[in-house]
Amino acid sequence: MAALADGQAAVDEAFRANWGRVVAYLIYVTGDWDLAEECAQDAFERAIARWPRDGIPSSPAAWLKTTARNRALDRMRRDTVGEAKLREVAVTGPAARHDDDNDSGIDDDRLRLMFTCCHPALPVEAQVALTLRTLAGLTTPEIARAFLLPQETMAKRLTRAKRKIVEARIPYRVPDAHHLQERLRAVLAVIYALFNEGYGASTGDELIRKELCSEAIRLGRLLAELMPDEPEALGLLSLLLLQDSRRQARIDGEGELVTLANQDRALWDRAGIGEACMLLDRAMRHRRPGPYQLQAGIAACHAQARTSDETDWREIVVLYDRLSEIAPTPVVLLNRAVAVAMADGPAAGLALLVELEQAEVLSGYYLLPATRADLLRRLTRDAEAQTAYRQAHALAPTDAERRFLHRRLSELAPPGDR
Amino acid sequence: MRYAMLVYVDERTDRSEEAVEREFAAFMAFQDEMEARGVLVLRERLRETTLSTTVRVRDDGLVVADGPFAETKEQIAGFYVIECADLDEAIEIASRNPGARSGTIEVRPVWQL
Question: CA-CA distance, A43 to A64, in Å (whole number)?
Fold first, then answer.
């Protein structure tokens, strides 16, 4: 029984660590995106059936790639279209080039896959969705939830994007140095979305999908290595490491969310923070600020404060001001309102929040009423705060977030008790 | 892989004769370059849309009218069919088309049997 459980755990682990690797490799070998996904799925199903019985292979990645490739070659032999492709594969011989366990350096199929997924000929929303599906192995319903969209809409978006890649022949490669710059922005956005998907987790059952964050950090590292003179690539990696450094402190012993102000800062990963600050310094020496460097700067302000009270909110507001000049997204404006509330008091923050609510760009986003509730609570406008907490509770995407909001709500005495 | 390259430009801009000639020379240079590179399959330059006629056949018969399909600011001024490796090469070729500077180039795969 223990072996069975180990086998299952090993498959789960292998899935998180290797899905993108297997899919990227299969697309390289077959050029067929759907076939690649299906055969990767097959390989993982076979692993579920075999590993608990036969034992876990010494290299799960190599086992999965070989199993999936054999499955793909079988299926391609069976149809005539596949036969032609197969000859192509045999001629160009990508399988021969591939060392099954080679996951080092720039020649990484996942990076190739990432640049293809993030090709500017695809709509931006499709770029992110496709990367989450093919590289991170998120299911279509998970991606749909992450973007607050119906599952059917997301499925169509993915199908259309894959069809365009094949039919319009978007190449499967890392762009040459000349075009790398312009293609980078989308890749950065996708890696960040990938990290957030793992950090915030849109599904209620598991708050932190560590592997997803690790995958984003891994891709971030790879990108920073590939483009060492690109400050935004360094800035993004710095930002991811800073957020990741708080992982242990974000959740308490009971699995409940802990806000930044209440976190035990001794649990923060000092090594991660140190590396992130070094990366940020390196990035800033280029004197080409960008949204990721500024966000990393904000995160670094928090990381460097020994206690919550020592946080330099003035500096954070300055950074948010600059960030909202170059990237005035609704979420940035919301966070700026929070920072202003800390620097100048909750009433000032609330005034900015009202502007955001009137713009109606964040309707449906639970952090808007949750923030309003928090500011109202601090202004001791309890009845209004309760209403806002209830609104936030109804919109919150995960159990942990709902429980957190419920706790806050019950801390406010019900009006009848006064 | 074959792509159609449709060149949309604003034909209403009033330009000096000199500017028109400069642009014409730029288009000729572009075409020579494409031919030398061996990617050009077909090219046609279209006359102005004031010479266009639209034709429709509906239930009540033939409808012929003066003018282009749609009265938009940018109109198709010409088209090319190119043969190249992939979309990135097609985009690169389109970016060298002089029409890309003043107008828009639409790159669309061509059905191949």
Answer: 6
Q: Which residue has the tokens 């762009």?
A: A175
- Given A168, A171, A175, which is nearest B109 (Cβ)? A168
ipTM (interface predicted TM): 0.88
Q: Which of the residues B1, B3, B86, B110 would you substitute to probe the A interface, choosing the one with the greatest number of A C-beta atoms within 10 Å?
A: B86
- What is the percent of chain A with per-residue pLDDT over 90, rounded to a whole number? 50
Residue A166: its chain B contacts at CB < 8 A? Answer: none
Written as six digits, the tokens of A9 are 């755990």
Asked if A22 and A43 count as a contact pair (C-beta separation under 8 A), the reply is yes
What is chain B's length?
113
B86 shares contact with chain A (CB less than 8 Å): yes
| 3-class state of residue A136 by DSSP | coil
The one-letter code for the residue type at A361 is: V
Tell me the average pLDDT across A315-325.
Answer: 96
Give per-residue burial for A279-290: e unless 16+ CB within 10 Å, then b: bbebbbeeeebb
pLDDT in tens, A71-115: 999 998 887 665 666 655 554 444 444 444 433 334 578 878 889
Give the pLDDT confidence score for residue A178 in this predicted structure.
79
Long-range contacts of A99-107 (CB under 8 A, 24+ apart): A100/A59, A100/A61, A100/A62, A100/A65, A100/A66, A101/A59, A101/A61, A101/A62, A103/A21, A103/A61, A106/A174, A106/A222, A106/A225, A106/A226
